[in-house]
């Protein structure tokens, strides 16, 4: 029964991590992508560069989180 309690605790921890980290990151990626699309339509090259850099950093964070999850 101790093992079952530890497994439950791990499930709760995993769920909290998803809610507090992964979902906000996904929302940030979506918002940044929308802003990038708008900047592209306006032809704002400075903003395009800034948002592209930001989007790459967000995707890197997302990938690092997935790598941690696997390990």
Question: How is this structure best described in words?
Answer:
- This protein has 71 residues and is an all-alpha fold.
- It contains 2 helices and no strands.
- The model has no long low-confidence stretch (mean pLDDT 88).
What topology emerges from the helices and strands here?
Blueprint: H1 2-42, H2 45-70
Helix pairs in contact: 1-2
Summary keywords:
mainly alpha, elongated, 71 residues
Radius of gyration: 17 Å
Relative helix content: over 70%
* Average residue-wise pLDDT: 88
List the helices and strands in order: HH
- What's the main sheet like? none
**Number of H/I helices:** 2
As a percent range, the share of strand residues is under 5%
* Large-scale geometry: elongated
Number of distinct beta strands: 0
Structural class of the secondary elements? mainly alpha
Unreliable parts: none
Give the end-to-end Cα distance, rounded to a whole number of Å: 26 Å
Overview in brief:
The chain is mainly α and 71 residues long.
């Amino acid at each position: 029964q101790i093992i079952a309690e530890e497994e439950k605790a791990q499930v709760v921890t995993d769920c909290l991590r998803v809610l507090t980290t992964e979902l906000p990151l996904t929302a940030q990626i979506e918002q940044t992508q929308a802003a990038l699309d708008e900047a592209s339509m306006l032809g704002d090259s400075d903003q395009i560069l800034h948002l592209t850099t930001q989007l790459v950093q967000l995707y890197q964070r997302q990938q690092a989180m997935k790598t941690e999850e696997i390990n």
